[in-house]
From TrEMBL:
Compositional bias per record (Basic and acidic residues), positions renumbered to this chain: 417-427, 508-520
Pfam families the record matches: MFS_1
Membrane spanning residue stretches: 31-55, 62-79, 85-112, 124-144, 184-206, 227-245, 273-291, 298-316, 322-344, 356-374, 386-408
Region called Disordered, residue ranges: 417-450, 500-520
Family under the similarity heading: Belongs to the major facilitator superfamily.
GO cellular component, one term: membrane
Ranges annotated as biased composition (Acidic residues): 437-450
Keyword Thylakoid carried by entry: no
Membrane topology: Multi-pass membrane protein
Organism domain of life: Eukaryota
InterPro entries membership: MFS, MFS_trans_sf
Protein name: Major facilitator superfamily domain containing 4B
Keyword Acetylation tagged: no
Length: 520
């Protein structure tokens, strides 16, 4: 359902280009005086991104996405009925706000559902947007096939006096039946599709989470990088240059090819189509690439491809073959950068509504500012390939910014790894020294045991010596002098033998008693 919503988002954004002339005719204005319609939509887009960033942190995602799609449906139905330029600009602002809210919410919901494992889903989400942007001009061409062709609105029509004034009928009514019903048909088809998707989101909102899903959501880990705010600011600048270069090249490559490279209009249109065609195809292929490659790897490959192709575009800006090949490579290289960038930052810090809104605003500002500035510079310096210089400058900027982003994100991790290695080495040293201490303690314990055994033997010898002396004294107390003399001499010999041999006296004691008895 989320992919279907981004398909509708792509169609809603891209439908304005091929129907712009018809909308100007519908409000009785020329194209130059109605250019504020793009400013109004861009301002609404920025406002919707900011509002969505706040609301998605405190409200149900499905409810907000359903409401934003419902507002988009109302805008798509009402835009063809607007009969004044002011009302059309206001309607486009509201329409843009709903699109900005949907863009922010879609990225946040992908990250909330799959986290840092959602790289393929993120690629599929943005492929759906590219597919919708590709289908919208085809749908407009089918719906407006019976309308007056755009070639009939030549340069004088920009200054036709009847188109620069507002009729009395316009001042009386704000809404009215469109001049061309095919215009209504094109917007109504897209609006009906978006309405169906919004109903599906409301159905998801009404379907309560099960207890298991609630428990799973509550267990989700929250990561916050040490340099969280710095990473978001750098990512803001990164997306500013990337999206600005993407939109600038896609918008001005046609005029560049006709005025600077000398191509025919049909060839220039083909060059424009191949840029967006390779862009959409590679976004589709990136769904499969994301399953086997890390987001950082995809960003590096994209930066290398965009830098190489833009450099060739600048060096060989007059060569048609180089323009065709380099434009194809440039479109393919730009395809995966935005979704890969969102998936990459999620690996290091958790992205919620406000953070997602912040870098979406950076992308929207790049989409607004860079094409406007390049348009003025191209008009001031028509002989210079300003569009190609912009592509090369943006590629250099993103090529420098991403290594800085990577270093800033991984710096705390590198320090933590070094600290872990130091702690592991310390533990290993402590364990080895502990083993040596254990061996020393065992040796000391053995020595103490041997000393205790020696003391016990000495104590036994002293005890037995005292007992022998006592026995000898008792014998000396008897009246026979010979016996006492012999006993005393035997006792002295026995005592001397104890000192000389160190053996236990238990073996000699019975023998002494026996001799004494025989002598008696």
């Amino acid at each position: 359902i989320l992919f279907a919503s981004f398909l509708g988002l792509g169609m809603s954004v891209a439908i304005l280009g091929p129907t712009f002339q018809d909308l100007a005719t519908n409000v009785n204005r020329n194209i130059s005086s109605l250019s504020l319609i793009f400013v109004g939509r861009a301002f609404g887009y920025l406002s919707g991104s900011v509002i969505g960033g706040v609301l998605f942190d405190i409200m149900n995602h499905f409810l907000l996405l359903g409401v934003s799609l419902l507002v988009t449906t109302v805008g798509l139905y009402l835009v063809p009925f607007c009969k004044t330029a002011v009302l059309l600009i206001v309607m486009m602002s509201v329409f843009g706000a709903s699109l900005g809210l949907l863009d922010t919410g879609g990225n946040v919901l992908i990250l909330a559902l799959w986290g840092d494992k959602g790289a393929p889903h993120m690629q599929a989400l943005h492929f759906s947007f590219a597919l919708g942007a590709f289908l919208a001009p085809l749908l407009a061409k089918l719906a407006l096939s019976t309308a007056v062709p755009a070639e009939n609105h030549t340069e004088p029509d920009f200054y036709h006096p009847t188109l620069n004034r507002s009729s009395e009928a316009d001042s009386e009514s704000l809404f009215g039946v469109p001049v061309d019903m095919n215009l209504l048909r094109a917007y109504a088809v897209i609006g009906t599709y978006v309405l169906v998707v919004s109903i599906l989101f409301f159905a998801l909102f009404l379907k309560r989470y099960s207890k298991q899903e609630k428990a799973k959501a509550s267990v989700q880990t929250f990561r916050r990088a040490k340099y969280h705010n710095a990473l978001l600011c750098l990512l803001f600048v990164f997306f500013f240059f990337y999206v600005g270069a993407e939109v600038t090249y896609g918008s001005y490559v046609f005029s560049f090819a006709t005025t600077h490279a000398g191509m025919r209009e049909s060839e220039a249109a083909g060059l424009n189509s191949i840029f967006w065609g390779t862009f959409a195809v590679c976004r589709g292929l990136a769904i499969f690439f994301a399953t086997c490659l890390q987001p950082g790897t995809l960003i590096v490959l994209s930066n290398i491809g965009s830098l190489t192709s833009s450099l060739f575009l600048v060096l060989f800006d007059k060569s048609p073959i180089c323009l065709w090949i380099a434009t194809s490579v440039y479109g393919a290289s730009m395809a995966t950068t935005f979704p890969s960038g969102v998936s990459w930052i999620e690996q290091y810090t958790t992205i919620y509504g406000k953070a997602a809104a912040f870098f979406v605003i950076g992308a929207a500002l790049g989409e607004m500012a860079i094409p406007a500035v390049i348009g003025m510079l191209q008009g001031k310096y028509p002989d210079l390939p300003v569009v190609l210089y912009t592509s090369l400058g943006a590629s250099i900027a993103t090529g420098i910014l991403f290594p800085v982003l990577y270093k800033l994100a991984t710096l705390p991790l590198d320090r933590q790894r070094k600290e872990n290695r130091k702690s592991e080495d310390q533990k290993a040293l402590l364990s080895s020294s502990g083993l040596n201490d254990y061996e020393d303690e065992n040796e000391e314990e053995d020595a103490e045991k041997w000393n205790e055994m020696d003391f016990e033997v000495i104590e036994m010898n002293d005890t037995m010596r005292h007992s022998v002396i006592e026995t000898s004294r008792n014998v000396l107390m008897e009246p026979t002098a010979e016996v006492s003399y012999q006993t005393l001499s035997n006792a002295l010999v026995f005592e001397s033998s104890l000192v000389d041999t160190g053996n236990s006296p238990v073996k000699h004691l019975p023998e002494t008693r026996t001799k004494g008895t025989n002598d008696e």
